[in-house]
Prior knowledge:
It is a single chain. The chain is α/β, with parallel strands linked by helices. The protein has 15 helices and 13 strands. It folds into two domains: 20-116, Beta-Lactamase, CATH 3.30.450.90; 131-368, 3-Layer(aba) Sandwich (Rossmann fold). β5 (96-105) and β6 form a beta hairpin.
Amino acid sequence: MVDDSLPPPGTEGDPGGFNFRQTIVQMVQRSASDLLLKAGRPPTIRVHGQLQMLPMPPLRPEDLKALVESLMTPRQFKDFLEEKEADFGIGVPGIGRFRTNVYQQRGTVALAFRRVPYEVPSIRDLLLPPVLEEVAGRPRGLVLITGVTGSGKSTALAAMIDHINRTRRVNIITIEDPIEFLHRDQLAGISQREIGSDTLSFSKALRHVLRQDPDVILIGEIRDMETMDTALKAADTGHLVLTTIHTTDATQTISRVLSFYPPHQHAEIRMLLSTALAAVVSLRLVPRADGTGRVPAVEVLINSAAVADSVRDIQKALDIPGLIAQGGVTYGMQSFDQSLMRWYQDGVITYEEAVFHATHPSEFALRVSGVSAASDRTFTDMPGGDSR
C-alpha cells in the first residue's frame, strides 16, 4: 500500500507522457466509481455504471509499466511479475484512496482502480434498510453481504462496521485484501490487517484471529472452504462475523455455502448454518430516473426460527421467497421486488429499470397494474416505514 504521505505517484517522467494524477483528478471530478487503464485505449471511467472514455490519447505500454513500478513496492512488483496480477490500495494526497488491481492482458500491463471515500458512509447515507443497524448490533452470528461485482458490497460492509465502531464497546479485527476503507477507533477498538503486508493469507490470519480477543470479525471475502469453515465456527462460538460472497440473492447464497463442502457433510453444515447464520443481505444498484446516480435494491433474509428450520431440514426444499414474505413485518425481511416497488412508487427509479432488475419481472408488472396472482406472495406483508 502506498502511504498517503508519499509524493503523488505517476506524476514524474516524460512531460508528454501519461499524467496519472490528472487522470485521477478527472475521475473524481466526474464522480466516477472506477478507472480502467490498458494499452491502446484512452483512460476509461465508469460513471453510474456506464463506461466513458476520457478525452486523452490512447495509453502506451511503456506508460503503464512505468506507472505500475511507481505505485508498487519492490516486493509487490516482484510478486506481480511472478503472479501476473496483484491487489493493493493506494492513497493520492489531496485526491483520495483507491483499491487497485494490476494484471496483464495480451502481454501488456493493465490496471483497474476503484474509488474508496475517505469518510465511511453510514447505513442511512447509503439508503440501505434500517434493519441493517439492528443486524450490526447483534452480539454473534454470520452476516453475508452478497451481490455481483460493483453492487456495493464493500461499501455496505464498511457502513455496518462503522455503525458498530460508533455504537458498541467491542474489539473489531478485519482481514482484507486489500484494505479499502480506513476505520479509526471510536467506541470500539479496530485492527485492520491487509493480506500481503500484515498477514500472508486469509487462512493464516483466520487460524490465529480467535486468539486476538475479537468480538467482531470482518473477512473481506469468502473464497474457499477453509475460510467458510472458520467463519461459520467463529460465528457459532459467540462472535459476530461479517463477510462478502459473490452470489446474486439469498437462495443462491445458501446453496453456495453448501457447495464449498462435499455432499456427505451437507447435513452437518446445514445444522451449523441454521444456528450460526444471522442474516443474508443481497444488493443490486439501480439507476435513478433523474440520471444522478444509483440506488440500492436490497433483499434481506433474517435467520428467524422458520428460516433456521428450513435450512436445517435436509428433506425440505429451501423456499427463501416464501420465508421472506412471512418475515416481512416481524423481522424486517424484504425481497428485491418489494425494494424495487418502493423505489418505483416513490418515483426514484423508472418502471423499465424496476422490471429489468426484478427477480420476477412478470409478477412485478402485474402488481404495478393492480393485478396479483393467487400464488404470488412476493408482495405479501411488505414491512412499513422507509425501509427499502
